[in-house]
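Hi R.,

Here's the input for the zinc ion complex you asked about:
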Amino acid sequence: MDIQKMCKSLPKIELHAHLNGSLSTETLKKLHRLHNPNDNNYPEIFSLGEKEFLDENGKPVPPLRLCFQTFAAIQKLTITSESLYLATCEVIREFSEDNVIYLELRSTPRKVEGLLTKVEYIEAIILAIKECAKKYPTILVKLLISVDRKQGCQNAEENIDLAIKFMKKYPSYIVGIDLSGEPTMGDAFLHLLETSREAGLKIAAHCAEVPNEEEIMRILNFKPDRLGHCTCVHPNLKGSEKLFNELLKSKIPVELCLTSNVKCETVPSYALHQFKYYYEAGHPICIATDDKGVFDTTLSAEFEIICNQFGCEKHDLIKLSKSAVSYSFASEEEKVKLLSIIEQHQ
Ligand code: IMP
Ligand code: ZN
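And here is the predicted structure with zinc ion in place:
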C-alpha cells in the first residue's frame, strides 16, 4: 500500500482542531448561501500560502497575521445557531471521512449582537455533536471552550464560567479549556485557567508560537495537561537550552501541527520543524491539523508528511495514535475502546 493510502486508512486521533479554522471551502460556500440565499458571488476566503496579500502600504502581510485576518473573515459566516450547527456537522463529517475516530474540537464562544449569545453558540455546537453521534457513529467528538488571549480578562472570565456550567450539564461533551489567539497579543490568563482546573476541566494551552521566554516559563510552570505547538523552545528555533530542558522535564504532551507552522512561517520548513527534536528526545507528542480549512490539510496529510520527512512507518504512526489516546481528554472507558479500534489495524 502506498503511504497516502496507508495514512488515510489508519484510525486517527485529532486533539487540536479549531472549529472555525477547520471549515473547508465547500462548507464556507454552504454557509455563505445560508446567509445570502440570493447571492451566488461567493466571497474569496483563501487558503494560506495560495498567494501574497498586501497591506495598506503595499507591503506583504506576514503569514501569521494573515492567518488571524482569515479567521475573522470566516467567523462572519458563523453568526447564528443554524450556521454554527451546520459548520460543526460538516467538520465532524469531514474528519470522520478521513478516518478520524476521536476528535477534540475547540472553539471560542462569540456573542453576535441581535443574532447569537455565547450560551446559544455553545448549545448549537453541542446539538451538532449529539446529532452527529447518530449520523457518524465511528467518530467520538468532544469540545474544549477556547479563551482568546486578545479578547481581555472579562471575556476570558465569561468563557471559563460558561465552560464550567456546561461541563456540569454535559460532562461527556465539554472536557476542557483551550488557551489560544494571536500569540503576540494579550495575556495567558493563568489565574483564570487555575479556576477551571479546580472545577475539573482539562487545559490545553498554546505555547511558544513566538519567542517569549518569560511567558513560556510561566506556562510550563503552570503545567497544563497539554501544550500546543511549542515551536520557539529548542535553541535552533529561537528558544534556549533552558526552555528545551524544562519542557522535556515536564513531560507535558505537545500537539504538533506541521503544516500550520510551515504556512505561518513560524518554522523555516518541514524538515526543520520542532517535530524532529521532540521525536528524537522521546518527548510525548501527537500530530494534529490546527485549522484544516485555513491550512488546506487533513490529519492523513500530516501523517504522510512525517513519513516522508522523518521516515516514520506504519508501526510508528500506530504508536503515535495510541499515545494520543492516552493524552486525550476522553474517559478511561472511552480510551479502552479507542485503543482496541487502533489495535485492530496493526
Ligand atoms: P474558533 O475559536 O472556532 O473561532 O476558531 C478560530 C480561532 O482559533 C482563532 O480566532 C484563534 O483565536 C484560534 N486559533 C486558530 N489557530 C490558532 C493558532 O495557530 N494559534 C493561536 N490561536 C489559533
Ligand atoms: Zn491552534
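One thing worth noting: The chain has a mean pLDDT of 95.

Cheers,
M.
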